[in-house]
C-alpha cells in the first residue's frame, strides 16, 4: 500500500471513529426505542416539499458553480454539473472532502475542463459557504445571544470539562498535541505535493480567482441566498412532523439550521453523523421540544437528507454509466 493511500485510510478511520463516538455519546442519553416509536407516529406529508426544496438547493449550487466556470473561461453545462455535484455529495458521506475531488474529476471527463481549474472553482464555492456561514452565525448571535451563550456553556463547555476532569490533566494535553500534530502533518504533505506541481498550482489559483471575473455578481449572491433559504425551509418543514415541535416558530428553526450546518461542515463520515445529532438535539430542546422528540427530529432531518443525497448520487452514477456504455457502442 502506498503512503498516500495508507494516510488516506488513517484519516478515514479517524473521522469515522469521531462520528460513531459522537453518535454514541448522544444516543446513550436517550431511549432509542422510544425515539423510534416517536418517528413512527410522525406525520410526513412534508416529505415531498422537502425533497423538492432539496433539489432546488442542488439547482442553486450548480448554477452558482457555472458562473465561476464561465468566469474562468470554461462554460459548463447544467446537466453535467448536476451529475457531478450529486455524485460528489454521495462520496462525501463515505469520505469527507473527497467529494470535491470526485466532482472535479467527473467534470473534467465530461466537459474536458482542466481538473485543477474545476477544483479551484469548487474550493472557492466552499470558501464562500464558510463566509456565508459566518454571516448567518453572526445574525443568530445578535438575535439569540443570551440563549446561545447558555447553550454553549451547558451543552459544550460543561460536558467537555466534566469529561476531561475524569482523566489526568496531562492526558488532555497530549490529546490536543496529537490532534495538532496530525493536522500539521497532513497540511505539510499537501503543501509539499502542491509545490512539486507548480503548473497545477497556478491552474488551481486561476479557478479560485475566477470569482473576481464574474460579470453578474448579484446573481452569484442571489444563488447563495437561495441555497441558505432552502436549508432553512427544509429544517422548518420537518418541525411540523410532530405536535411537540410544530409550534416552535421560524426563528427557532433558523437557529437550529445554523447550528446543524456547523455540525455538517465538520469532516466526519455520514455528513457530520453524530456531531450533527449532538448539536441539533439540545438546540431543539432550547425551544421547549421534548428531549426524545428533539432526538427523533435530529435523526429524521439528518437521515432524510442522507437518503436524498444517496438516491441522487446513485441515479446520477447510473445515468453516467448508461451514457458511457451508449457512447462506446455507438
List the helices and strands and how they pair.
Blueprint: H1 3-27, H2 32-40, H3 47-71, H4 78-94, H5 98-111, H6 115-143, H7 145-165, H8 169-196, H9 198-208, H10 217-238, H11 250-265, H12 269-272, H13 275-286, H14 291-329
Structure description:
The protein has one domain. Helix 3 (47-71) crosses helix 4 (78-94) and helix 4 runs antiparallel to helix 5 (98-111). The protein is mainly α. The longest helix has 39 residues, at 291-329. The protein is built from 14 helices and no strands. It has helices at residues 3-27, 32-40, 47-71, 78-94, 98-111, 115-143, 145-165, 169-196, 198-208, 217-238, 250-265, 269-272, 275-286, 291-329.
Let me know the largest β-sheet: none
* Count of domain modules: 1
Low-confidence stretches: 1-7, 167-174, 190-200
Shape: globular
Annotation, overall tally of beta strands: 0
**What fraction of residues sit in β-strands?**
under 5%
Which bin fits the share of residues in helices?
Answer: over 70%
Secondary structure category: mainly alpha
Mean pLDDT: 78
> Which sequence of SSEs, written as H and E, runs from N to C?
HHHHHHHHHHHHHH
Discrete helix count = 14
Rg for CA atoms: 21 Å
